[in-house]
Design brief:
By secondary structure, the chain is of the alpha/beta class. It folds into two domains: about 240 residues, Rossmann fold, CATH 3.40.50; about 100 residues, Tyrosyl-Transfer RNA Synthetase. It has 15 helices and nine strands. It has a seven-stranded mixed sheet, with helices on both faces. A two-stranded antiparallel sheet has the order 1-2. The radius of gyration is 21 Å and the shape is globular. It starts with a strand and ends in a 7-residue tail after the last helix. Bound molecules: tryptophan. The site of tryptophan (TRP) has 14 residues, from strand 5, helix 9 and strand 8.
Length: about 375
C-alpha cells in the first residue's frame, strides 16, 4: 500500500496523510484563528494543523488572561529547519504574553539514545538554546530546565519529581502498551517524566492552576494522550486539561521528513551559504521535468517540489509566492531558477541568523 504511514514517538515514516492522522488520533483541525495569528505563516499556511482543547488558550489570548506555553526538546544532532518551527512558536507565544517553560529532555535522551547527560547538556546549549535566543527568545518570563535537574529550589524540584512518581499510579501497563507498543522501563520513565513536564506548571509550587498549551510535532501525541488521561484520574489535584497543537513535519531534502540522523535530509541553522547551495542543488527533490523542452511545454509540479515547499515557509509575501507557483507550473520558471530563489532567500536568512548566534552565545547564562 503506497499510502501507509507510521507516526509515533519512536518512528515517523511514509507519506503522511494529515487528515487521516486527525481522525486516527482524535484531534481537531485548527481553523478560524483570530487575527493575532494571521501574520504568522506557521498558522496562516496550515503548518500548525490540529489541536486539542486549544479554544481555552484562544480565550486567554482574547481576555488577556495568563497562560503557559510548555514544550520540550530532545538534544540530539544538529538544529535544523524542522526544529525551527517549534522555536518560532515559543517566541510567538512569548510575544503574546505567555510564560514559557522549556524542558531539555536529557533523561529521555539517556534512555532512548544512550546519550550521556554531559553530551546532552552541551548539545542543548550549542545547538538548541543558542538558536532559540538568536531567533528571538527572551529571558524574561522564560524557564529552561533539564529533566535531570528541575530546580535548585528544593520545594520546586520535589514537587516536580513527586508529580512524576504519583502519576505512574494512574495508567495501567496495558494502556502504556497500547500507546507505546514495545515497552521498556526507560520508555515508561520517559513517559511519566514528560507528563510531569507538561503538567507541573499548574502546581502551587509553580504557577498554580493555569491553562497550558503544548506545541509539538504530531509524533508526540501519544505522550499527550496518556498525560491527559493520568491527569484526569489524579485524586490529589485537579488539573486543567492539557491543550496542545500539532505541526506538520518539515519535508527532508530528498524524501521523508527532515531528520538530524540523515545529513542529506536537513539544512542546519549553522550551515554556511555555500553548503546550503550545494545541498539544495544536489539533494532537493525537484518537481521539474526531465528535459528543458518538456518542462517548458508541460510545466513543473510545485506540489511535490521540495524547494517550493520550503519557500512556502520562507517567502512571507503571499503574492510573490503565488507568482512563483504559477510560473513553475506553467513552465516559465525552471527548476534551477526555483532553486536559486530558495538558495538566495535561505543564504540571506542564515547569514543574519549566524551573526545573531554569535551574540546569543553571551546570553546563555541568562536562560539557564
Ligand atoms: N519527547 C520529546 C521529543 O522527543 C521531548 C519532550 C520532553 C517534550 N518533554 C516534553 C515535548 C514536554 C513536549 C513537552 O522531542
Amino acid at each position: 500500500m503506497a499510502n501507509e504511514f507510521v507516526v509515533n514517538p519512536w518512528e515517523v515514516k511514509g507519506d503522511i496523510d494529515y487528515d487521516k492522522l486527525i481522525k486516527e488520533f482524535g484531534l481537531k483541525p485548527l481553523q478560524n484563528l483570530p487575527e493575532e495569528f494571521s501574520d504568522n505563516v506557521l498558522f496562516s499556511r496550515g503548518f500548525v494543523f490540529a489541536h486539542r482543547d486549544f479554544n481555552k488558550i484562544l480565550d486567554c489570548i482574547k481576555e488577556k488572561e495568563p497562560f503557559v506555553m510548555m514544550t520540550g526538546l530532545m538534544p540530539t544532532g544538529k538544529f535544523h529547519l524542522g526544529h525551527m518551527m517549534v522555536a518560532q512558536q515559543m517566541i510567538f507565544y512569548q510575544n503574546l504574553g505567555a510564560k514559557i517553560y522549556i524542558a531539555v529532555a536529557d533523561i529521555e535522551a539517556y534512555h532512548q539514545r544512550q546519550q550521556s547527560l554531559e553530551d546532552s547538556k552541551k548539545i542543548a546549549i550549542d545547538e538548541y538554546i543558542t538558536n532559540y535566543i538568536a531567533l528571538g527568545l527572551k529571558p524574561e518570563n522564560c524557564e529552561i530546565y533539564f529533566q535531570s535537574n528541575r530546580s535548585g529550589d528544593g520545594k520546586k524540584a520535589s514537587a516536580f519529581y513527586r508529580l512524576q512518581n504519583q502519576l505512574a499510579r494512574h495508567a495501567t501497563f496495558n494502556e502504556f502498551k497500547a500507546v507505546y507498543g514495545d515497552l521498556t522501563p526507560g520508555k515508561i520513565i520517559a513517559s511519566t517524566l514528560q507528563a510531569s513536564d507538561m503538567l507541573h506548571a499548574q502546581l502551587p509550587e509553580f504557577e498554580g492552576k493555569i491553562p497550558v498549551v503544548v506545541p509539538v510535532g504530531s509524533d508526540q501525541d501519544p505522550h499527550i494522550r496518556i498525560a491527559r488521561d493520568m491527569a484526569k484520574r489524579f485524586p490529589e489535584y485537579q488539573f486543567d486539561s492539557l491543550c496542545s497543537t500539532y505541526h506538520k513535519f518539515m519535508p527532508g531534502l530528498g524524501s521523508g521528513k527532515m531528520s538530524a540522523s540523515d545529513p542529506n535530509s536537513f539544512i542546519a541553522l549553522t550551515d554556511s551559504p555555500s553548503e546550503v547551495k550545494k545541498k539544495i542543488n544536489k539533494h532537493a527533490f525537484s518537481g521539474g521535468r526531465e528535459t528543458l523542452e518538456e518542462h517548458r511545454k508541460l510545466g513543473g509540479n510545485p506540489d511535490i517540489d521540495v524547494s517550493y515547499q520550503y519557500l512556502t515557509y520562507f517567502e512571507e509575501d503571499t503574492q510573490k509566492l503565488k507568482q512563483i507557483y504559477d510560473d513553475y507550473k506553467s513552465g516559465k520558471l525552471l527548476s534551477g531558477e526555483l532553486k536559486k530563489i530558495l538558495i538566495d532567500k535561505l543564504s540571506n536568512f542564515l547569514t543574519k541568523h549566524q551573526e545573531a548566534r554569535e551574540k546569543a552565545k553571551n546570553m546563555i547564562a541568562k536562560f539557564i
